[in-house]
Every structure is written in structure tokens, then in C-alpha cells.
Amino acid sequence: MEHDTRNSEQSARQISSRCISLPKMKRPNSKSEMNDVVPIVPLHERAPDIFETSTALTAPSGLEATLSNVVDLLPSLVQVRHGIISLCDGAGIPDMTVGAGWSEGSDERYRKHLPRAAIDQIITTGMALVAEDIALDPAFNAADKDVLGASDNMKVSFIGVPIRVDANVVGTLTIDRILDNKSGSLLDYDLRLLTTIANLVGQTVKLHRLFASDRERLMAEKIRMQKQFGELKQPGHEGKRAHVKGIIGDSPALRGLLEKVALVARSNSTVLLRGESGTGKELVAKAVHEMSGRAKRPFIKLNCAALPETVLESELFGHEKGAFTSAFNSRKGRFELADKGTLFLDEIGEISASFQAKLLRVLQEQEFERVGSNQTIKVDVRVIAATNRNLEDAVARNEFRADLYYRISVVPLLVPPLRERRGDIPLLAAEFLKNFNSENGRTMVFDASATEVLMNCAFPGNVRELENCVQRTATLAAGASIGRNDFDCCHGRCLSAMLWKHASKETAPKSEPIAPSPLNPAMQSSGAFASAAIGVPPVDSEQALPAPVRLGLVSDAKMTDRERLIAAMERSGWVQAKAARLLGLTPRQIGYALRKYGIEIKNL
Fold first, then answer.
1. What is the C-alpha to C-alpha distance for residues 158 and 80, in angstroms, rounded to an integer?
2. How far apart are CA 37 and CA 184, in angstroms?
3. Using CA atoms, how far apart are residues 73 and 59, in angstroms rounded to an integer?
4. N or C: which end of the chain has fewer CB within 10 A?
5. Rounded to an integer, what is the distance from CA 325 to the centroid of its chain?
């Protein structure tokens, strides 16, 4: 942004060679006239004005709202009656017009204040237009003078500057005002300031258009892939299914997933695996790789939640010798190792906001630099990401970048939870028991009552919980066969069942935590304390804070998020790590929340 500001100031200094000459100002003849003249402030002394403008331009909102915020700032920067930003289509016709107090559908109201002939001249010549009195300027026809309300009794001044994207003029920034002694003396300064603002607006328009173009292309590719999925149900395909090593089951939900896996594997599109924890997303990712043309190339995997940001950057991009204290040798990163193959990024929803920007560039350009190096490395990697978070909600809460969401969610695949494929439980249990027997030299089997117990269990931890249950029961079983009485849940000793039963009493009715929802930037978080920390669901959701915390700390429903946080810190003696444990958060998340709410740490 500093670079853009310097370029804007440079172009503003050159404005005299690119715009219509300013009329000569009348020198004040009397002391009273001298008092009416406002001294021109150098542009570099108005840095706060430029900062306010840049802040408005970088706010997370739509382009129209962003430009309206800039227009709303103009009265605090220059004398103005009407301020308007107008963007044009390829034919030079205004297709977006915003002014102060803009709202949806109000474009026409602002177009009425645009002098058409003057705007056409600015767009055609690419030069600024300044008129101290539009009644005396040949650039304004009679219609323009009527639009601006100029008359013999009311003289109107006008300043209009072009908005550029690269070398092309894409719109105008214009102001008009009633002419008086003060406004006449400030025309040259106001022109320079408006030119600087117009250049910043041009950069913002360019970024918004690039983002919109990228999103449309990705959505088109997503629709194309979904249409291919629809063509799967054709004569000849019925009754067939893909057999994938490690994925066990024959339920309709699993068959549907494997059919989609077979289709997705034929392309190089980025895949996002959605599913609850323990559903086998890594096995599905490996199946996509092994059924693709990259099967003979490397399959590299990385759990993004298991590493801090600094280590994660080195793991993904590699580092050069001496890049940091323990970098004794150069090392290839996961992207480099996965060249021509597949990279599986598990728990992608847990990466920090700053690292999301770095990852976006690699996914988009397929190039990066190692830590400590300025040499760009080009790779050909297919990325498969996985998450158990609701990324749409994370985007709405500004915890996950929208552009990264569209980049990774080209082909989303939903991995069904075990409760939606109960018919696979006996097959999975038998396989897990077979593996246990092989590892321990046993010959144990399930009897009919054992299978009935397993079929009646909810297994909220999905396949992972089922595997643990089988291993635990087989280890503790006294006989050669496993029966109903060998299961802890039949004696009220299943800790997992107690955990989920207790959570169901303390939380609101459950909903699918990973089911995609419409992406709406206007969505607000539930107001629970967890909205202050990345990746922590609100306290009334399925993944609520542990019951002891909520009962002992936030039992008052009227407590605000900030009050909950202060209560936890006071209870823990202002030790962040202890407060994090009380709230079921990580120290990093508690630190983020403290900064968000501006809570000062007390040294006791």
C-alpha cells in the first residue's frame, strides 16, 4: 500500500501535464481577502487522510460498499457538495455508480448528478478535468450545467479525475461544490489529493475484479464436475462399484462415495474432503491418488493442525541451510516432494490467517520459494485437502479466507459418518478383529450377541472409535469368543458413551458440523465465547465447551463473551495456559481472544 501511495503522489505531481490547465487565480488585493484564502496544505502532511482512505478500501465488504465508504470520507478531506465514483463497462457506459449513503439499487439516483459530456471527456482523454466555474468552461454543455445546478446566482466548481486499472481508464472520481473564495484557492491541492485517491481506488477495483474472475472460473469448473457426477448413473454402471484397498463396506452411502472417487480421479482438479473426525478421509484421499494417472508418483501427506505456523511453512515449502537456527542443511518441502504426484493436506481449516495467504499463492500459481531463499520453484502437484470444520461459517466469521475456500473447494466430497452406513459395521469390526488376531497371535471371533451390540452403538467417533472399541474389548475378553457381556457399554463402563451422553444433555440439539451451508458474508457468529477463537464452535453447538467449564464459569446466559473470558482469567490467576484449559481452548486461541477484546494481562 505504501508503494501504491508513492506512485499515486508521483502521478499527482505530474498532473499538470495530463490535465486541463487550471484557471489563473485572482490575487487577493485586500487584507480581508487574504483572510478568506485557505493556505494549501502539502500532500505529504495529509498522510492521515490517505491512511483513512486505504483503510476504507481494504475493509472486508463488497466493491460497491467499499467505494461508498470512500465517498463518505470525502467531506472530511475536501470541500464537496456531491462526490461520486462511477465505474464503466467495456463500452465506456457507467455500470456502477456510488455516492454518499449508497444502498442497493440506488445507482440511478447518483447518475442524475453526473455531467455526461464531462465524464465522456475524462474517460476518452484519460486526463483530469478541473473547472473553477462550469458556466465558463466549454467542456460542460447546457445539460451538464442543469445537472449540476449551475446558474447566474450560483456558481459551481467541478473536479473529475480518471480511475485506472493498469493503463486502462475504468471510471471516474468526481466532486462538485459551490464556488467561493476558499474553494477556488484549493482547486490545485484538491486535484492532487483526488488523483491519489483515484489511484488507490483503481488498485482496489483491480483486486476485486481478479477475485470475481477467479471465483467464476472455479465455480464453472465445479459445476462441470458435478455434471459429470450426474452422468454416472447410466446403463452399464448399475451394480458396479470401485474396490479400494483399506476402505471396507458395501453400504449405499459408501458405494456412492467410491463412484464419485473414481470420477474425480480422472481429472487433476483440487478436491476438498468434508467429514466428521474418524470417518477415513485420508483413505479416501489415497484412493483418489491411486486411481488417478499420478498413482506411480508420490503421495505426500501432512496434518496442518499438528504443527505451529513457522514449522508448517518449512515443512510445506522447505528451507535453505542457515535459514533459521536449526537449519543445518537444505531440505525439500512437501510440495517439492509431491511434484508430479499428490499432496494431502489434512485439517486445512486449522491453519492461521497469515499462512492461508501464503498457501493461496502456491495453490494458484504452483510456485513458491523455500524459507531463506529467493529462488522460485515450479511444481506440478494435485492438492487434496480435508477438514471436519464448517468452512462456510469460518469464512463468514473472517476466520478463513474466502478466496482460499473457493480455491480448495473445486470438487467437494462428503465422507459419510458411520451412523449413515450401519450396514458396514459388521464388516469393519471383523476386519479390525482380524488385524488384532494377526498382531497378537490370537484366534478370537464375535458371536451373534456381540454383533448386535455393535450395531446398536451410535459411534459418534466413527470408524476410529469402532476400531478402538474392538481392540479394547478383544484385549480384555477372557474367552476365545467375544460376547455381549464383554463390552464395557453393557456394564455402564464405556467412557466414550458416558462422554457423548453427558455432552448431549448439556448442549443444544445436534446438527451436522461439516454440512456445507450457503456462503453469506453477512452471517454473524452465534455470540458465544468461542467465536473469539479460531476453530472453536459456539457453546450451544455440537462441539460445545466441556460441561464443567460451562456450568462453573458461564452458567449465566446473560454474560458477554468478554465477561466469560475475564472470569476464566481471574479464576486461573491470570495464567493464560490455565484459562485455556478451563475453556477448552489452546493457549494460542486464548491469546487471540485476549487481543480481540483488548483485555490487559494482570501481573499478580
1. 9
2. 9
3. 14
4. C
5. 32
Residues belonging to the chain: 604
CB 205 within 8 A of CB 63: yes
Listing from the earlier edge strand, what are the strands of the sheet with 411-414? 299-303, 342-346, 382-387, 271-274, 411-414
Residue whose C-alpha cell reads 485586500 in the numeric block: 30
User: Which residues, including other chains, have CB under 8 Å from residue 311's CB and lie 6 or more apart?
Assistant: none
Q: Is 376 helix (H, G, I), strand (E, B) or coil?
A: strand
**Percent of the residues in the chain that have a pLDDT greater than 90, as a whole number:** 22
Which three cell numbers, joined as nine digits, stand for 477?
A: 475378553
Question: Average pLDDT for residues 48-59, to the nearest whole number?
Answer: 71
Q: Is 358 exposed, middle or buried (0-12, 13-18, 19+ CB in 10 A)?
A: middle
Q: Give the SS3 label for residue 109.
A: helix
| pLDDT reported for residue 575 | 82
Determine if residue 347 is left, alpha or beta; phi over 0 gives left, psi from -120 to 50 gives alpha, anything else beta. Answer: left
Confidence at residue 230, expressed as pLDDT on a 0 to 100 scale = 63
Q: At how many degrees (to 10) do helices 462-476 and 425-440 cross?
A: 50
pLDDT band at 184 (very low <50, low <70, confident <90, very high): low
- Any residues with CB less than 8 A from the CB of 284 and at least 6 apart, and which? 247, 257, 261, 273, 413, 415
Give the containing element (helix H, strand E) for 172.
strand 168-178
Distance CA 455, CA 469 (A): 13
Task: Decide: helix, strand or coil at residue 373.
Answer: coil
> Shortest CA distance to 572 belongs to which of 531, 536, 601, 534?
601
Does the CA dihedral 293-299-300-303 come out positive or negative?
positive
Average pLDDT value over all residues in the chain: 77
Instruction: Note the pLDDT of residue 22.
Output: 44
Rounded to whole angstroms, the Cα distance separating 528 from 404 reads 26
Identify the three-state secondary structure at position 226.
helix
> Mean pLDDT over residues 291-298, rounded?
92
Closest C-alpha among 522, 244, 550 to residue 395: 522
For residues 438-453, give the mean pLDDT. 90
Map residue 155 onto helix, strand or coil: coil
CA distances from 569 to 48, 418, 529, 562, 594 (A): 37, 39, 13, 11, 10
Q: Which of 94, 73, 175 is nearest to 131 (CA)?
A: 175
Whether the predicted model's global pTM rises above the 0.85 cut: no
pLDDT score, position 300: 94
Per-position b or e across 409-444, b if 16+ CB within 10 A of its CB: bbbbbbbbbbeebbebbeebbeebbeebeeeeeeeb
Render pLDDT for 311-367 as a digit per residue (tens, 0 to 9): 888 888 888 887 777 778 888 889 999 999 999 999 999 888 888 888 888 888 888
For residue 389, give the C-alpha cell: 470444520
Highest mean pLDDT among 55-59, 239-243, 408-412: 408-412
| Separation in Å, CA 417 to CA 250, 280, 355, 462, 465 | 14, 9, 30, 6, 12
- Report helix, strand or coil for 446: strand
